[in-house]
Amino acid sequence: QGQIVESGGGLVQSGGSLRLSCAASQSTITHYPIYWYRQAPGKQREWVARIDYGGTKEYADAVKGRFTISNDLVAWRVNLQMNHLKPEDTAVYFCNGGSLWGQGTQVTVSS
Q1: Three-state secondary-structure class, residue 74
Q2: Residue 26 DSSP one-character state
Q3: Could you give the CA distance from residue 33 to residue 101 in angstroms, rounded to a whole number?
């Protein structure tokens, strides 16, 4: 299956945008839905969004209308465009496909 690597986190002001990217193998993306999760300090990891190879997408209520998940089937990445960010979006964001997890990327939204 290879590995998963997230990138694109950083510090942004409230209302700003960030684009996270999840690099995975062609095999992982074609065989498994890809999920984005996040974990804030002191909280449990929570599901944010998912996409399958066919492009079917789902979002958690907390991010619906602000975040967009998409496949890049040339570079074999799954991207998460995050707009209208809020301080409560601050967390480490993880990408998951099958049994593989990335190391996470920190997103910090200042008020």
Answers
A1: coil
A2: H
A3: 13
Counting Cβ atoms within 10 Å, is residue 74 exposed (0-12), middle (13-18) or buried (19+)? exposed
The torsion defined by the Cα of 80, 48, 32 and 24, in degrees rounded to 10, comes to 40
Q: Which residue type sits at 100?
A: L
Cα(3)–Cα(48) distance, integer angstroms: 20
End-to-end alpha-carbon separation of the chain, Å?
39
The amino acid at residue 45 is: R
**Residue 97: per-residue pLDDT:** 97
Q: What is the pLDDT of residues 29-63, one digit of tens each?
A: 999 999 999 999 999 999 999 999 999 999 999 99
pLDDT digits (tens, 9 = 90+) for 87-97: 999 999 999 99
Distance from C-alpha of 66 to C-alpha of 14, rounded to nearest angstrom: 13
Q: Which amino acid is at 37?
A: Y
4 vs 14: CA distance, rounded Å: 28
